[in-house]
Amino acid sequence: MTESSLITLNEKSVQNNLAFLKKKMGKNVILSAVVKANAYGHGIEQIVPLFEKYGIRHYSVFSYSEAIRVYNSLSESCTIMIMGWISDKEIIAAIEKNIEFYIFNTERLRVAIECAKQLNKKVCIHLEAETGMNRTGLNDEELT
């Protein structure tokens, strides 16, 4: 039998680390807190308000369910970006909540455009380019 793990969030360390990153990268850089997998075990509902307190306004997640957890943990509107797969139903809900997401094939692009038209809303999508690994993403022909 193994012991449970314990993660301690140190607010001063978070503040110092973010200040260091901002100083190194400059004021015009957008930092995205990748909080997928329950913020890597730290807890989305615990870490997002802490990051928000120190100026993080962009969050990256894997799924729509994680995006909603971030959305519900924020005190003000921030950018949330889904990096993984979302269903057609989730695409509609994401557009309604101004949640950004990745598109990695032309069929999903058509679905996203149609959903945005149905809702009469603009949508911010990110196009994933196939870079030679032959895994996912739009190829050269699809991007032109």
Task: Explain this structure.
- This protein is of the alpha/beta class.
- The protein has one domain (31-143): TIM Barrel.
- It has seven helices and five strands; from the N terminus they run αβααβαβαβαβα.
- It has a five-stranded parallel β-sheet with strand order 1-2-3-4-5.
- Strand 2, helix 4 (64-73) and strand 3 form a beta-alpha-beta unit.
- Helix 3 (44-53) crosses helix 4 (64-73) and helix 5 (88-96) packs across helix 6.
- It is globular and about 45 Å long.
- The mean pLDDT is 93.
Explain the layout of strands and helices.
Layout: H1 11-25, E1 33-34, H2 36-40, H3 44-53, E2 58-61, H4 64-73, E3 79-82, H5 88-96, E4 100-103, H6 106-119, E5 125-127, H7 140-143
Parallel strand pairs: 1-2, 2-3, 3-4, 4-5
Annotation keywords:
single chain; 144 residues; alpha/beta; TIM Barrel; 5-stranded parallel β-sheet; 5 strands; 47% helix; 12% strand
